[in-house]
Amino acid sequence: MGTLWEGRLSGATTDALKALNDSLEIDKRLYREDILGSIAHVEMLVTVGLIEESDGALILDALKIAEEEISSGSFVFQAEDEDIHTALERRVTEIAGVAGARMHTGRSRNDQVVTDLRLWTLKSLDELALLVMSLQKSLIEQAKKAGETRLPGYTHLQQAQPVLLSHHLLAHAWALSRDFERIIETRSRTDVSPLGAGALAGSSLPIDPLMTSESLGFSETFKNSLDAVSDRDFVAEAIFVNALLGVHLSRIGEELVLWSSEEFGFVDIDDEYTTGSSMLPQKKNPDVAELARAKTGRIIGNLAGFLTVLKGLPLTYNKDLQEDKEPLFDSFDTNSLVLTALTGMLNSITFNEEKMSAAADKPFSMAIDLAEYLVHKGMPFREAHALIGGLVKTSIDDKKDFEKLVLENDNFGPEIEDFFKPEMAIRRRITPGSTGLEAVEVQKELIEKRLETQTSMISR
Length: 460
Ligand code: ARG
Fold this sequence. Notes:
Bound molecules: arginine
Number of helices: 18
Number of strands: 6
Order of helices and strands: HHHHHHEEHEHEHHEHHEHHHHHH
Strand content: under 5%
Helix content: 55-70%
CATH architecture of the largest domain: Up-down Bundle
Structural class: mainly alpha
Shape: elongated
CATH topology of the largest domain: Fumarase C, Chain A, domain 2
Distance between the termini: 43 Å
CATH class of the largest domain: Mainly Alpha
Radius of gyration: 30 Å
Largest sheet: 2 strands, antiparallel
């Protein structure tokens, strides 16, 4: 078989065009989706009477053989195979003979490729959703085990107030819940069949796009053939979902890098998830956390790169769109690697409770509680803030013990001693969604419920 367009064009293409134009190495991994699409298409062609049942059967058998060949590694790709679609059509024609030449009736690679890509993206979104849930579960498990362990809460990376470790871990789990929701929402916009749009304008043959859409399991069918072959919003969205998820993973990664440093010493990462140094014998490096931080860069690059490809493209299909696959595949591949490694690492991490509470239990961390004590007694907050600020300043400038300065101050009664008991800072937080013990218990229940809802959303 020559090129697909040998009827129209005479000369052979140059090597340079071939090297630039061929996409087989990238789109090979769509072979299953391509075969599924062809099966649905051929069955429809038989049903509407466009091809004989016997020809249909020959094509379906050939597709089955080709699939087995590819999955077992015995499929021989040829130099002329431009992409997975041409490779499969060539092979089907070799096996099924003339019948194979009928497979592409009423179809273009333009609607074929985007059908494949939508099917691939749907499957990949589902897999990603499961990986996100595994990391959430790991965070929730660790939060449950953390009990009343405290660590400093930070703003500006300056110690601000003590918070529960469970509260901190759950903060990341909530961010992942939003990632999960975005995956599901993107899924619904991806779940539209473009098959039957043809090259761009539909067909003069009585093909049935609804039938193929249904047999492929899509929830909807395209409404506008021009939009069907040129729309890659779902690709951009899927990359964005991965990019923002990657941003969340990078923030977890960065904290674990910090926390595992000698200076913080909040966590011990299991040896399985660290590497040593080739030169410095004492080193234990948090590579997984660092790569979780770093890999996001390429996904953000994929997003910016792909939006730039789309920008300004006239309707409908343009070869530019062939550039959709690499950034899409890479974004899913990258996050799958990171999610799997990060989840394993979190499952086996050890939190150093003593170091955490030692860092959290500093008299200055009680400053806001002392100000709020004065508010309880009727002092306007601004006045209270200034008064406590003054005591902090005196303590630092005159090198005096802060607790002593507070106890000596007339504005405070003897009950104030209780305020310097570290665990009390947590117990005094009574508002919903706060780091208070009760609030965090409620939060744990809420996120477990959220997980149940999430589970029901993917097992649909
Ligand atoms: N390999 C192409 C792609 O990925 C398939 C569609 C080709 N369509 C065309 N009109 N040349 O976009």
